[in-house]
Every structure is written in structure tokens, then in C-alpha cells.
Write a structure and sequence with these properties.
InterPro entries: Brnchd-chn_aa_trnsp_AzlD. By secondary structure, the chain is mainly α. It contains four helices and two strands; from the N terminus they run ααββαα. The protein folds into two domains: 29 residues; 76 residues, no CATH class. Strands 1-2 form a two-stranded antiparallel sheet. A hairpin with a 7-residue loop joins strand 1 and strand 2. Helix 3 packs antiparallel against helix 4. It is extended, with a radius of gyration of 20 Å.
Length: 109
């Protein structure tokens, strides 16, 4: 049975997740931003994608140098090529998943 504390924790988690995603849209609706802010925000999606990509191809351990994961790094090459040629993120994700799965199957991992 779900107790009252559990319900409050779920509701609090929903608010904490919702606020940083929705609040910026609410606060900037109908307002223009300074040119410097707009220039900065243009690079934000690229930075986020790069950070997510790098974190998925690099293995870091405490006390060791970071190392590139070989299968993921190899799969990154055709995925990057698809993005450059088609500008289609969904197709690139599909290619990345298929290439990674194929390489893992062939290597026996």
C-alpha cells in the first residue's frame, strides 16, 4: 500500500522535474532576449549533445585515466556521418543503435 509520504515524494519529484523545464518558457513568453543571450543559447543544444555523446563513449574510473570504449567509438563514426549527410537525428540514432548492436553481436559481448 502506498502511504502518504510516498505520494508527497512523488509529487515533489514531479514538481522538481517540471519546474526547470517549463519555467524558462513561461518567464520568456512574449519577451525578447538580449542578443548576447540569444547567441549563447544557439550553442546550448550542440553542447548538450556533445556532453551526452562523450559520456557514452568514455569510461572513467577513479584513479585511472579516462579511456574510450572501442565499440561505442567505432559506432560513433557512421552515426556522425549520417548526421552530417541527412541532418536527421532520428535516423542517426537508429544507425547508432544498429551499428552498436551489430558490433557487440560480432564481437561476442
Amino acid at each position: 500500500m502506498i502511504n502518504r509520504e510516498m505520494v508527497w515524494m512523488i509529487l515533489a519529484a514531479m514538481v522538481v522535474t517540471w519546474v526547470p523545464r517549463i519555467l524558462p518558457f513561461v518567464l520568456t513568453k512574449g519577451k525578447s532576449l538580449p542578443p548576447l543571450t540569444l547567441h549563447f543559447l544557439r550553442f546550448l543544444p550542440l553542447s548538450i549533445i556533445f556532453a551526452l555523446t562523450l559520456s557514452s563513449v568514455v569510461d572513467e574510473r577513479v584513479g585511472h585515466f579516462p579511456r574510450f570504449l572501442p565499440i561505442e567509438t567505432i559506432a560513433l563514426l557512421p552515426t556522425f556521418f549520417v548526421v552530417l549527410k541527412t541532418k536527421n537525428i532520428l535516423l542517426a540514432v537508429i544507425v547508432g543503435v544498429v551499428v552498436t548492436a551489430s558490433l557487440r553481436f560480432l564481437s561476442g559481448i
